[in-house]
Design goal:
Layout: E1 2-3, E2 10-11, E3 15-19, E4 21-25, H1 28-65, H2 68-84, H3 94-97, H4 100-126
Antiparallel strand pairs: 1-2, 3-4
Helix pairs in contact: 1-2, 2-4
The protein binds zinc ion.
């Protein structure tokens, strides 16, 4: 019994697909979603990394200027990037323990958390 790479369900019947490495999926829909995820990952992962880099530079600016607004902006940028580009999977081994659905959900929830937290902090500056 193998877990579906996309939805994470255990299935007796599974189909092996090849997207760089081989993965198991439970149905045609999951196969299509998995292939789409890897295609989007290939196209947009670099954008996630660029936004993470921009957020990192913003934190460094915050440290050197002693202005917290840059650190809060970094959180806002990082959160937004995680929501728009939920492609943090560095290697295929990650997908043996976590399904793509779980990874995307976790990314987006983390992104929402960072955005809400940064907005709260940004408003606390003016009070
Ligand atoms: Zn599935």
């Amino acid at each position: 019994m193998t877990k579906c790479t996309f939805c994470g369900k255990n299935n007796k019947e599974s189909h092996e697909i090849l997207v760089g490495s081989s993965f198991y999926v439970c149905c045609e829909s999951c196969k299509q979603n998995t292939e789409e995820y890897f295609e989007m990952d290939k196209k947009h992962k670099i954008k996630l990394y660029i936004f993470v880099f921009i957020a990192s530079v913003s934190i460094i600016v915050s440290v050197f200027t002693s202005r917290m607004v840059f650190a809060y902006a970094a959180q806002l940028i990082f959160g937004g990037a995680l929501i728009i580009f939920p492609y943090p999977v560095i290697n295929s081994a990650t997908l043996t323990t976590h399904s793509i659905k779980t990874v995307k959900l976790f990314c987006r929830l983390l992104g929402v958390f960072f955005i809400i937290w940064s907005i709260i902090l940004l408003f606390s500056i003016n009070i």
